[in-house]
Amino acid sequence: MNGKAKRRTISDYGDTGEDLALATSISNGKDLAPIVRLAFEMGRPEDLLQQLKIVMKKKEVEIEELCKTHYEEFIQAVDELRGVLVDAEELKSELSGDNFKLQEMGTALLVKVEELMELYSVKKNVTEAIKMCKSCLQVLDLCAKFNGHITDGQFYPALKTVDLIEKNFLQNIPVKTLRVIIEKRIPVIKSHIEKRVNSQVNEWLAQIRSSAKNIGQTAIGLVASARQRDEEMLERQRKSEEQCGPGVGDLEYTLDVVDIDDDHAVKIDLIPLYRASHINACLGLQEQFCGYYYNNRRMQLESDLQISSVQPFVESFQSFFAQIAGHFIVEDRVLRTSGGLLDAEQAETMWQNAVAKMTSVLEEQFLRMDSATHLLLVKDYVTLFGTTLRQYGYEVTPLFEALDHSLDKYHLLLLAECKEQIVSVISNDRYEQMMMKKDTDYENNVLAFHLQTTDSMPAFPYVAAFSATVPDACRIMRSFIKGSADYLSYGVHVNSFDIVKRYLDKILIDVLNEALLNTIHSGSIDVSQAMQIAANIAFLELGCDFFIRHAAQQCGIPIRSVERPQASLTAKLVLKTTRDAACITLLYLVNSKLHEFMALMENINWITEEIPEDCSDYINEVVIYLETVLSKAQQVLPLDAVYKVGSGALEHISNSIVSAFLSDSVKRFNVNVVMGFDNDLRMLESFVDESFHATGLSKIYKEVSFKECLLEARQLINLLLSNQPENFMNPEIRERNYNALDSKKVATICDKFKDAPDGIFGSLSNRNTKQNTRKKSMDVLKKRLKDFN
Q: Which pLDDT score is estimated for 265?
């Protein structure tokens, strides 16, 4: 019973799983070192000892039972067990010592482990801190980089840096304070960039406005150079045409084309604007920036379109138009290259407003101008301005139409200026034939206006048939043609020749011709002056052909198109009429002088008893004067004018002779006086025949002569000296021999004709008979004329 109770106690003691595991390990002979090590590591060596004691008690029970079964074996085993106990005590003692040592070593190790754990924690914290620092440092590096860009004015890189921070780093910044600060600063930074960029745009706007005039002048200068090259080429072509003349063949011309890229020739720095536009686009403010740019440029244009009140328009118009040209050249470049900063509609609106203002300015200023030169200067520059901007795609027709509206005003001013010059030239002319001492004078005054009468170069000094009025007037006309053509060039008129021709006729008729007529009718000119005026007009008629050709050249049309008769100037006919008026005045003056000489007939003894042997004094004076007049006329006047003057003077002489017979102061005359007149007429007829051939009139007027101008006087003398004057009443004889005589005048003169008394011719019986016969015939004529009248 004690044994059972004891077994129960042992069994109660060892029911735990750990005891079974320890017992199994011991029974299987396994190494207990790991279990011991685990117990010490866990800090439960006493539990291990307790378990070992339990295992030992269980073993004792097993041994006791086994001993009962195997007593001897048991005794033997007990003995062995006692030895085991001794070994166990030794083992226990050793374990206790080892446990102590282990405890000592474990305590030191635990301290080290705790220190190690702390170091691991510190390491982890330091690693995290380093990671955070690196992240913050990267952000701070970007911030420093941003500050550098801002300092250097590199706003686009700065903005890209801000975007990089905002998108990739801001939410990952481990330090909340730094993250909050950066979050708050980003809008401020963007606002700052916007202000700085807009500030730069304002500076650029101011700079580009100050540069606009230079830009415009450069662009207009390029167009002016191109125009000058074209005009020089045309001038070379004209000279070649003039030198070669018609029928030489087609000429070949080469044109050197200079290709100028306006975009490279006109320097415009748009980089600040592009940068600002891109930055505003990145900021999401593109539309706002476009409006800002357009409004500023529009206000600048409105300011540029204001006319200076300090400086006269004639002095400021080039700067005015160059500034506007530069403005729109910049806008064209912005429109083409900025990618939507300025749209075509906005550019067109600005241009339309500018055209309306410029047109108004031109019309107002043209009304105020009183100089054709000033008006032409403005017009030329405006056409250059228009041509320049047309190359950039702007519509400039309204500007050219505004210039065309001032066409009449310009020509009125030009006519007034030319009129002053022409009046001055005519009033200051001494009406002396122009002498040219060298070939350059001949070229400048004759060949330049195609006034030469021969193709060969004359000997020098050369005396021209005209006075200084002709080349001076031709220069004025040439200047007028050029001024008129220049105003019409590069305008709305495709063919300006008809307009130039119309105004050329106007100046020739209303100005030059009027001035000549005023001089002719002034009553203050003498014979030589009237003759020179008529000669001058003849050369001016010749100059009309040069004027029309020069107008064609200036207008750029073929000369052959104006060489047709229907293309000639109306002024040419008007000048011919004026030349006729000058010839009439000349003839009046010549006749007035001849009248003075013919008045000497009052000293004639109409009933002289002697037959004059020599010519009368008056006829000698007349011949000398006529020789002087015709000689001078031959030098300066066309042959038709020479004929008019000569024939008119001779008709006046003839009329004067007839009038002398009809004069109331002559009561009677005899045959001796008639014979004297016959001598005078024969001398005069001989002179005029010689003059008619000497002047070359006989080659032109083959069917007439100067003698016919004396026909009435000659027929009267022939009738009075005729042996049968009654034949005058015979129609056939009268038509053949006396067709120039008027029957009433003949009747009056015949009534005065009384032959000499018979006593005077008493010794001349034959002659006496002849006189009686003539007297009877004369009496018959008188009676028949009396009956006829």
A: 61
The two three-digit tokens of residue 595, written as one number = 């009248």
Q: What is the 3-state secondary structure (H, E, C) of 522-534?
A: CCCCCHHHHHHHH
Say how far apart CA 776 and CA 760 lie, in whole Å.
Answer: 18
The Cα–Cα gap between 773 and 724 comes to 8
Q: Which residue has the tokens 């030992």?
A: 56
Q: Which residue has the higher pLDDT, 348 or 139?
A: 348
Q: How far is the CA of 357 from the CAs of 302, 364, 395, in angstroms?
A: 9, 11, 15
Amino acid at 552: A
Using pLDDT thresholds of 50, 70 and 90, give the confidence band for residue 199. Answer: confident
Q: Name the burial class of residue 173, with classes exposed (0-12), middle (13-18) and buried (19+) by CB atoms within 10 angstroms of its CB.
A: buried
CA distance 728 to 722: 10
Provide the β-strand partners of residue 463. Answer: 435
CA separation for the pair 341, 510 (Å, rounded): 59
Residue 263: predicted pLDDT: 55
Over 70: is that where the pLDDT of 250 sits?
no
Alpha helices per DSSP H over 599-668: 617-636, 639-662
Q: At what angle do helices 639-662 and 570-598 cross, to 10 degrees?
A: 40
Checking if the pLDDT of 513 tops 90, the result is: yes
CB neighbour list of residue 382: distance below 8 Å, 6 or more residues apart: 321, 362, 399, 403
Cα(320)–Cα(305) distance, rounded to whole angstroms? Answer: 7
How many CB atoms neighbour CB 316 within 10 A?
14
Q: What percent of the chain has pLDDT over 90?
A: 29
What 3-state DSSP class applies to 118? helix
pLDDT surpasses 70 at 466: yes
Contact 182, 173 (CB under 8 A): yes
Other Cβ atoms closer than 10 A to 478 = 18
Question: How far is it, in rounded angstroms, from Cα 123 to Cα 117?
Answer: 10
pLDDT digits (tens, 9 = 90+) for 87-126: 778 888 888 888 888 888 888 888 888 889 999 999 888 9
Question: CA nearest 150: which of 215, 202, 194?
Answer: 194
Over 123-134, what HEC string results? HHHHHHHHHHHH
Evaluate whether 223 touches 387 at the Cβ level (below 8 Å).
Answer: yes
**Token pair 């008394």: residue:** 757
Neighbours of 460 (CB within 10 A): 13
Contact 562, 544 (CB under 8 A): no
The mean pLDDT of the chain is 83
Convert the pLDDT of each residue in 32-91 to its tens digit: 778 788 888 887 788 888 888 888 888 888 877 776 776 777 677 777 878 777 877 888
User: Is residue 87 within 8 Å of residue 44, measured between CB atoms?
Assistant: no
What's the token pair of residue 383? Answer: 């056409």
> In Å, what is the CA distance from 126 to each residue of 120, 136, 158, 176, 741?
10, 15, 33, 18, 153
On the CB side of 593, how many CA atoms lie within 13 Å of its CA?
19
Q: CA–CA distance from 345 to each of 409, 630, 761 (Å)?
A: 36, 79, 119
* 462 backbone dihedrals φ, ψ, rounded to 5°: -115, 130
Q: Which residues contact 86 (CB under 8 A, 6 or more apart)?
A: none
Euclidean distance between CA atoms 776 and 725, whole angstroms:
9
Size of the chain, expressed as the number of residues it contains: 789
Q: Smallest Cα–Cα separation from 273: which of 221, 211, 183, 345?
A: 211
Per-position b or e across 51-75, b if 16+ CB within 10 A of its CB: bbebbbebbebebbeebeeeeeebe
